[in-house]
Amino acid sequence: MTPSASPGSLPATGREWHLTARPQGWPTPADFALREAPVAHPGEGQILVRNLHFSVDPYMRGRMNDVKSYVPPFPLDEPMEGGAVGVVLASGSEKFAAGDHVLHNSGWREYATLDARHATAVSPGIAPLPAFLGVLGMPGLTAYSGLLEVASFKPGDTVFVSGAAGAVGSEVGQIAKLKGAARVIGSAGSAEKVRVLTEEYGFDAAFNYKEGPVAEQLKAAAPDGIDVYFDNVGGEHLEAAISSFNVHGRATICGMISQYNATEPPAAPRNLALVIGKRLRIQGMLVMDHADLKQQFFEEVSAWIRSGELKYRETVVNGIENGVDAFLGMLKGENTGKMIVSLDA
Ligand SMILES: NC(=O)c1ccc[n+]([C@@H]2O[C@H](COP(=O)([O-])OP(=O)(O)OC[C@H]3O[C@@H](n4cnc5c(N)ncnc54)[C@H](OP(=O)(O)O)[C@@H]3O)[C@@H](O)[C@H]2O)c1
Question: What residues have CB less than 8 Å from 197, skipping those under 6 apart?
Fold first, then answer.
């Protein structure tokens, strides 16, 4: 099949972000470079996409280290990867035509040439395109599966979620409320985020973890203890949750962002022995194991968004040249909801 656009109308070059050095501790802009590279025209079975929005996510920090993990490290001096949505400019595949919108994993660049089998159709008629990177995308499925399947959530549970104003956390708390939680408590890093949690997302209580010991603030917010802890942060938060757990409590360990840039081992949790007497279940999760829930998640959450029962925010940074600043800003908490880099201007 020949590509469905004339080669003369396609871009010759595009900009892409490369990792140029492995960060020690906090990454800095000097660890990255925005470079101009030739754009490959699509061959048989391939598509050429102009990216409109790409995602910057906490897990990408792990891919900057040269260590064995569930995903390989980003190679140096090559384009970084990550979720992106864009429009097909040319297609050598029967699956897509020029003008179609797709979700794929070749983010951090203006143009991506990829195998059509690695792209999924998305429709701006269903939701604004950035939602497929957040509330209806990978972070959303993480929240849905991590709460309902991994933590075995039951109506009547009291749920505590850390990182609660972020992409995953804000959806966890709202799904818990919609599914009949007795009480939902969130922690976040600013007074404004705490306000959003209680006034916009319907959390029963929320606190700023920077304002005092997490254990004390959690005990005050959950005087009768917690049944489920959805951990996005680790360290002092996990220790506080273990202290506040009722018997047979269940923790989903989704992320430990407080440790991603650490150069020393964490000081907490120091109270793991409580797991025994309280018969706690502490389970790690990876969203990639929960693809079987994708359809159910998508249908249920998109209905809640349409009805206004589930709200979401995005923090949008414009321009590919600001991609690294958006990533570093997300690690520092500059986002409320999903952090998105938009190239659509
Ligand atoms: N296991 C999986 O499959 C999976 C999939 C997706 C995401 N995750 C994990 O889920 C977590 C949330 O991801 P996300 O995409 O939704 O990101 P996000 O919450 O939208 O953004 C990251 C947030 O982390 C908070 N943060 C940064 N440093 C912190 C610290 N030292 N202590 C407490 N909070 C801190 C910041 O908010 P504050 O202003 O509140 O500090 C920041 O906004 C991350 O740990 C991520 O690795 C795991």
Answer: 164, 165, 170, 173, 186, 188, 203, 206
